[in-house]
Specification:
The chain is of the alpha/beta class. It contains 16 helices and 21 strands.
């Protein structure tokens, strides 16, 4: 056990080419600078030395001084500069995490779900992020990972523990490795017990831990299959997670009660399996008597996840083919006005404003059909179904609702004109007044 969890003697930093997208630089972080001075006065801090060694080999000492020094003084430069989103898959009760560097736009995704890829892609697009790495905490048994789809969509590199034995992986990480994206970084901590290859990813300022199926909120992942061991999990949680600061936020891989976040301190006190004065035999006794049913999807999920989510027949989820339609994070299919203007002959343009607006200041698109939104549910039969329908209004909000109504009425090829006629006029596209 000790060897499995020993901190990596020669940690590696996953770092490829420098970012190609430049973003406006934020103002200097005054607190970080103050921290940098303090760290120089405390050179014997063990974790500092570890980080220092990592950075020296990559010639990025200065940057790491900043992140580590903030950690030392209890500041959180890394999390301050980070975009963070928690996403939920209600079918498997899985949490997916999106972490992005606000400055460079580089991002990572932790534990994406195959069926939620379109949603994740929409959010990533709207936030203007570029996915550099896709990380799984382990080989899941209850859902198929979206890692392969992330790789296809963004050229993201797949990161997984070396102990998972998965072929389609770009970086096999070990305990103590560091995954870096922009100015943010995640430490890899081996936390076996649910599976042999489970890891926890910890933000380098120790403000957040992504614990996968090891430590859950008031619980812990089952240990009765996939090489699991309650004894090993007990040690892993104590050595690798409970050793973090009490205020470190705990973000688990699942929750079945709608709980979203906890802290190390809370779980040390209140976790019903391993909190309070629980000793190893207490935890093992609890875990050995969970009496859980075999996971329903294990026979599909595990083989798929051993391919990092690559479909066996390489069949990808169906895409919309009639036009360059993107589905927004809000769930609305949208299309850009320039494309619509170039393909008017092949489309039905449905305007859902009222009659006064149709003939008013903004005018309307040549040949468009008018059905005000308030009347659309009753008059949906008037909308031709022989060609794709693009819906338009003033700003793209009412037409977004109209697109949903048309979809619900069974029209398959429907999209909202992004930004409506205001956006249309911004691009100086043809109008009829
Ligand atoms: Fe799991």
């Amino acid at each position: 056990m000790g060897a499995a969890l020993a901190r990596g003697a020669q940690p590696r930093m996953l770092q490829l080419a420098k970012p190609t997208v430049t973003r406006p630089k934020p103002p200097p972080h005054q607190k970080a600078l103050r921290g940098a001075v303090e760290i120089l006065q405390h050179p014997l801090q063990p974790r500092f030395y570890r980080a220092f060694n990592i950075c020296q080999s990559f010639g990025e000492t200065a940057l790491y001084f900043r992140a580590r020094s903030c950690n030392y003084t209890g500041d959180s430069a890394t999390s301050d500069a980070m975009i963070f989103r928690q996403l939920f898959d209600p079918v498997s009760s899985t949490y997916t995490y999106l972490l992005g560097c606000d400055e460079s736009g580089e991002a990572v995704v932790i534990d994406p779900v195959f069926e939620r890829h379109a949603r994740d892609e929409a959010l990533i697009r709207e936030l203007g992020l570029r996915i550099r790495y896709v990380l799984d905490t382990h080989v899941h048994a209850d859902h198929v990972t979206g890692a392969w789809l992330m790789k296809l969509a963004y050229g993201a590199q797949i990161v997984l523990s070396r102990r998972c034995g998965v072929e389609e992986v770009d970086f096999r990480v070990d305990d103590g490795d560091v995954v870096r994206f922009g100015e943010c970084a995640l430490e890899v901590r081996a936390t076996p017990g649910h599976t042999e290859g489970c890891v926890t990813y910890v933000l380098d300022d120790h403000s957040m831990a992504f614990t996968g199926d090891c430590l859950l909120i008031r619980g812990a992942g089952r240990t009765d299959f996939q090489g699991g061991s309650a004894q090993i999990m007990y040690q892993a949680i104590h050595e690798q997670i409970f050793s973090l600061p009490d205020e470190c936020l705990v973000y688990p891989g699942h929750d079945y009660e709608g709980r979203t976040v906890s802290t190390v301190g809370e779980e040390k006190r209140f976790n019903s399996r391993i909190g309070g004065d629980a000793r190893e035999e207490d935890f093992v006794g609890y875990m050995d008597n969970l009496g859980l049913a075999h996971p329903k999807l294990i026979d599909i999920a595990v083989p798929a996840n051993l391919r990092a989510g690559r479909p066996e027949d390489d069949q990808l989820p169906e895409k919309i083919t009639w036009g360059p339609v993107t589905v927004s994070f809000g769930g609305i299919p949208e299309i850009e006005p320039e494309w619509v203007a170039r393909h008017l002959e092949e489309l039905t343009v449905l305007d859902v404003r009222n009659a006064e607006e149709f003939d008013g200041e903004l005018g309307h698109v040549e040949g468009s059909q008018l059905i005000p939104l308030d009347e659309l549910r009753d008059r949906v039969g008037e909308v031709p179904r022989d060609r794709p329908v693009v819906v338009v209004c003033q700003s793209g909000r009412r037409s977004g609702m109209a697109a949903v109504i048309l979809k619900d009425a069974g029209l398959k090829e429907v999209a909202n004109v992004a930004g409506g006629l205001i956006n249309w006029s911004r691009h100086a596209l043809p109008f009829r007044s």
